[in-house]
Amino acid sequence: MANETLSKAKEAKNDEFYTQFHDIEREVEVYLEYDPNVFRGKTVLLPCDDPEWSNFTRYFAQNFERLGLKKLISTSYAVESKKIKEWQPTLFETESPYFDADKSRTNGKIFVLDEDINGDGRFNINDLQWSYLEGDGDFRSAEVKALRDEADIIVTNPPFSLFREFLAWIVEAEKKFLVIGSMNAITYKEIFPLIMDNKLWLGNGFQSGNAYFRIIGEANYANGVYDESTGLVKFRNCCWMTNLDHGRRHQPLQLMTMADNLKFSKHKEIKGRASYDHYDNYDAIDVPYTDAIPSDYEGVMGVPVSFLDKYCPEQFEIIGITKTWFGFADKTYPEQIQVGKDGRRSKVTKLNDGATIKHSEVPEGETYYIVNGQIFSQVYARVLIRKKQ
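RESULT FIELD:
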């Protein structure tokens, strides 16, 4: 249900999700543990932000000296661009000598921290200086693009609806980054090649896989997603994506051999079988659970996308992904008859969009496909990996 809500948020451009302070702190500390100087001497840009609401701005401003930052820049979208129905400027803005009622609605804002303006001998949140941007704060504008080019590291929770474009905007400038996105984005054709080339990986992640965000405006969510008592929405399909190194990604998985998995696995799809399923349209075995990856298999394996949360580049290499294949499939199927769980039949061409398994008999309780009298099923998107020699 949370995944569905995330998709609806993307479709409706309901992108105002504010990250909690402790989630930012918990994530950043992982990179500091691996390299205490990762932010030292660096300019950090927080685009797609709202400095008056953002915990990103608050965290990096409060920890400016501890992190050893050179400069902190935080920008926001104009209110009219965010299409907030009921809005009033904050006292912080209206009581400032820079306040402009017209610009308050149409222009973005920029907050900068790079000097001790109050003369107390410290660099902190009290030294933030702000002004209106010339434009609405869109990251694609020349104004914000110039700030991107000035920065060393970009950190933010970008709009879900613009994630592909936003990440491409970072990558084209070859910047370091730490951003929040949907796990679904991993399969995008613009993003998965970055994972294959070791230019992007998952961060430490949210506590127990649960991401809680504060929202502004209407709370139109499914039951169990929005909590009125806290004002937070809960998603289980969010992750941190980064090219900053951290220690957890270098911890190899502790795995059993294929023989032990077939004998002792806790998963009924594995335990007691003679072998793992083999794909009909690619030379690889199907491994439906990360903890069922056999430690001694030398060939290619299709593993769940969630494997990337535990991926160790010293242990495995990533070959590809089965969703749309990116040119990996070695067989193309003609039109198929899809038989749903309810027995309903329809003509489709879905088998060419993923990994397939051939069956000697109709799989019980599953949707299956008939091609020239033969029976097939299709598995969820799989990451193709191989053990490093």
